[in-house]
Amino acid sequence: MIQPLCVLQRTFSRGFAAIHLERHQKVEFCSTFDASDSIETMVSINGLKKDRFPCPFLFPFAQTSCTIETVTTERGRGMSIQEICRVAECTRLGEGLYSITMHAPAICGQTQVGQFVHIACGEGNLLRRPISICDWQDGNLRIVFQVKGEGTKWLAARKTGDELDVLGPLGHGFDTAVLGAKPIFVGGGIGVPPMLACAKKAAGEGAQPRAVLGFRNKDAVILEEDFKAVCEAFITTDDGSYARHGFVTDVLKELMGDATGVAACGPKPMLKAIAAIADEAGVPCQVSMEERMGCGIGACLVCACALKSKNGETRYGHVCKDGPVFDAKEVEW
Ligand SMILES: Cc1cc2nc3c(=O)[nH]c(=O)nc-3n(C[C@H](O)[C@H](O)[C@H](O)COP(=O)(O)OP(=O)(O)OC[C@H]3O[C@@H](n4cnc5c(N)ncnc54)[C@H](O)[C@@H]3O)c2cc1C
Ligand code: FES
Fold it and tell me: Is the terminal CB of the chain with fewer CB neighbours within 10 Å at N or C?
């Protein structure tokens, strides 16, 4: 299979309908594009920078064609790289819960918080498995996952020095800049890992992040110390076996007074409740959605999700390329 060099957020509306661009692919361009087109997010093609384009929506290769060598987009999300990554550490965090740190300098160089990687999980598993990027530093990328089926079982059995075939970073991540000076990061269960990098990024940008992390019970609690090293973190358990008895939404409501934005990842009912709380408080809310995935790059339509278009009608987006992170107001709950 040819791996895409660039996965565009949207298809061009006129003249050019390709979803992703591949190295050495010859593409035809039309002369103009609508303001809604992905050209806005594209920084350069073959090293020719967008600011050298004659006008924002007039492409330099007007009415001609070019062979793609490199494509860079503004938020880095267009660059998906296939990298063979050596496992630096695979740790068991709890029953069926694992953390893998792998050497992935190329992917780390492009990663934005909230994006995911698509990992080949052994020869018997044809489809790659999507796993959120939990954190990355000095070319090492960390994922935290729960064993669900064959793919994640295979992944959990990796040892230091093993190689992983990883495609990433994929998707559209969180935009911490719009969450303001006092953002709240909410994670539920295995939705907790991607919120760690978000909280770190917000803290690094001078914000005062807080985290609210919910788990089924004491045994399911993960990453508590990692979050506490970055920000104030509140833990809840559904059964009260550890920390506060209750749901993340109970704590969130209490913290909303001075919150400037909310970002969340977890089960859909939790995200829906969080979106309603943020809406009532009048602050921006971003949610990371999960759908079963096939290709992970916008080509197979497996991950379709219902979204609201500007005129209120339902439209369908792809969790893998339009998401996984969406503005909560965009989601058809
Ligand atoms: C964007 C995104 C980020 C994710 N991040 C994490 C994470 O950080 N940690 C974590 O533990 N899990 C995460 N998941 C869920 C994880 O992808 C699934 O648990 C995993 O694919 C299950 O694979 P399996 O072979 O073990 O299970 P099986 O059930 O045997 O999988 C069969 C097929 O269904 C797909 N599938 C099954 N469950 C899911 C699911 N929930 N989402 C998407 N595809 C699924 C698999 O990819 C595979 O193709 C994420 C899912 C998405 C979509
Ligand atoms: S997983 Fe194939 S389009 Fe999203």
Answer: N
What pTM, to 2 d.p., does this model score?
0.81
Domains along the sequence of the chain with CATH: 6-73 (no CATH), 81-170 (2.40.30.10), 176-288 (3.40.50.80)
Closest CA to 51 of 64, 38, 42: 42
Tokens of 251: 């704590």
Query: Is the C-beta atom of 251 inside 6 A of ligand 2?
Result: no
Q: Is the peptide bond before 324 cis (omega within 30 degrees of 0)?
A: yes
Tell me the per-residue pLDDT of 219-278, one tens digit each, with 9 for 90 and over: 999 999 999 999 999 999 999 999 999 999 999 999 999 999 999 999 999 999 999 999
Q: DSSP readout, 35-50? A: TTSGGGGEEEETTEEG
6 close to ligand 2 (CB < 6 Angstrom): no
Task: Enter the tokens of residue 147.
Answer: 């064993």
Cβ of 129 closer than 6 Å to ligand 2, yes or no, is: no
